[in-house]
Amino acid sequence: MTRPMRKVPVIARAAAVGGLAAAVAARRARAHPLQAVSLVALAAAAGWSMFAPRSPGFGRVPWRGPRAGTRMALTFDDGPSASTPAILDALAAHGAHATFFVLGRQARAFPDVIARMHAEGHQVANHGDDHGILAFRGPAHVRRQLATCEDAVARAAGPGAMSRLFRAPHGFRGPATAAAARSAGYRTVAWTHGVFDSDEPGVDVIVQRCNDVLYPGCILLLHDADGWCPDRPRPQTAQAVPRVLAEASRRGLDLVTLDELLEPST
Ligand SMILES: [Zn+2]
Question: Which residue range forms the structural domain that includes residue 213?
Answer without folding.
Answer: 71-265
